[in-house]
Amino acid sequence: GPDGYSRTESVTGDGTVTIEDLVPGEYTITEADAGIEGYSWTVSGAEEATVVGDRNSEVTVTNTYTPAIGSLTITKAVVGGGGTAVNKEYTFTVTGPAGYMDTVTITGNGSVTLENLALGEYTITEQDAAIAGYNLTVTGEGSVTVAANRAAGVTVTNTYTPPTNPNEPGGGTPPGTTEIPENPTPTGGTPPIENITDEPTPLSSFNMLENIEDEDVPLAFMAPMTGDEAPTGAAALFSLMALGMMGAFGILGFKKDEEDA
């Protein structure tokens, strides 16, 4: 006020305070920080008042409080895993002040924004996001603070890598790939036969029976005869045996020549 006047008073909400013995003049009323956590607030009313001699002056200062709100954006990032990871829907549980809890679903490399959130700390937890055939690491889960009239954000990243050891849980070939052996073995375990050409063997490599003339064999050799009589049953049997032996010798001779070759 006038002449360096200064004074501090406290007023309870919806209360009144009267300051006496003021000299006439202009006085300025300034409210100290009156914020309340979890609310935004506005102040209205005259900041200046004029005191006239023997007259009372009044000033009403009104504080209006509204719950403070904020927003939270959750982003899902994926590394590796191919199209399976990108197209997968990821589910998150979000908990916050005053028992707040919500479940949101985000497609790979997408995001979702939660609006009109009360101020405070929120915890983001991802539910099972495993993909068969891959190891999974997750970063970005945890707590984030939502402040008044400010947008909070968090990015949760899933990294998928194929196991180096096929005996690890989830090991083996990732989905969508096929292992092809360098030297495939036919069914039954028999390895492929190599160095077989498809060229005919020349006839010159075979030794044919030589010096065999196409002459009649004397009947005297084939079976004993008595005069002009026809061969007896025993003689006929002998002749058949002789012919069989001749054929056998011919085959053996062919086989021998083949081995010598």
Helix and strand topology:
Elements: E1 25-28, E2 39-44, E3 48-51, E4 62-67, E5 69-79, H1 82-87, E6 89-95, E7 101-107, E8 111-118, E9 120-126, E10 135-139, E11 142-146, E12 151-161, H2 219-222, H3 233-260
Parallel strand pairs: 5-12
Antiparallel strand pairs: 1-3, 2-4, 5-8, 6-7, 6-9, 9-11, 10-12
Task: Explain this structure.
It is built from three helices and twelve strands. The chain starts with 24 loop residues before the first strand and ends with a helix. The chain is rod-shaped, with a radius of gyration of 54 Å. It has a four-stranded mixed β-sheet with strand order 8-5-12-10. It has a four-stranded antiparallel β-sheet with strand order 7-6-9-11, with no helix packed on it. Strands 1-3 form a two-stranded antiparallel sheet. The protein has 261 residues and is of the alpha+beta class. Helix content is 15%, strand content 31%.
Short précis:
With 261 residues, this protein is of the alpha+beta class. Helix content is 15%, strand content 31%. The longest helix is centred in the C-terminal third of the chain and has 28 residues, at 233-260.
| Approximate shape | rod-shaped
Radius of gyration over all CA atoms, rounded:
54 Å
The percent range for helix content is 10-25%
Oligomeric assembly: single chain
Largest sheet: 4 strands, mixed
How many extended strands? 12
Query: Uncertain segments of ≥5 residues (pLDDT<50)?
Result: 219-231, 251-258
Whole-number mean pLDDT: 76
* Number of continuous helical runs: 3
Report the order of strands and helices.
EEEEEHEEEEEEEHH
Strand order within the widest beta sheet: 8-5-12-10
**Could you tell me the strand content as a percent range?**
25-35%
SS-derived structural category: alpha+beta
Measured distance between first and last alpha carbons: 134 Å
